Amino acid sequence: MSHHVVEETSIGNTEYTVVITYNQSHHKKAPITIYINQHQNQLMGDYIYTIQDSSTFINSADENDQLKSLNQQLVAKYKVPIYLSINTTTSFSNVEMFQTITQLINSVQDSNGERQS
What keywords are assigned to this protein (predicted)? Predict the structure, then answer.
């Protein structure tokens, strides 16, 4: 079953739209894509792909260690490749971002009776 989650949420003092798409019904290692966009921010931020412990920046002016760390933590939790894009003009907490993302994924898994990672 394919999942497409769109959620308006506050992370810290900033409003974001979070879009998460994943589908492990066809292949249990199918990647998760996560887009987090600050409201009223039209710039595309860093975009990173992580598989196991290897990360590649697809769009980045400079490699962002904070984003890389967050994506590696998500990959370690879900054990699948993850595409992650965070578009923001403000700083953010990796802890709050991680909690927001995992809560959204877990709430969908819980409502569908799927096993959590």
Answer: Proteasome
Domains of the chain: 3-111 (3.30.230.90)
**CA of 64: how far to CAs of 8, 16, 37, 106, 111, in Å?**
24, 19, 16, 26, 34
Distance separating alpha carbons of residues 98 and 108, to the nearest angstrom: 16
Task: Judge whether 50 and 67 are in contact, CB under 8 Å.
Answer: no
Q: By C-alpha distance, which of 76, 73, 107, 63 is closest to 93?
A: 73
Tens of pLDDT, residues 14-39: 999 999 998 877 788 889 999 999 99
Q: Is the pTM of this model over 0.90?
A: no
Interatomic CA distance for residues 89 and 74, integer angstroms: 22
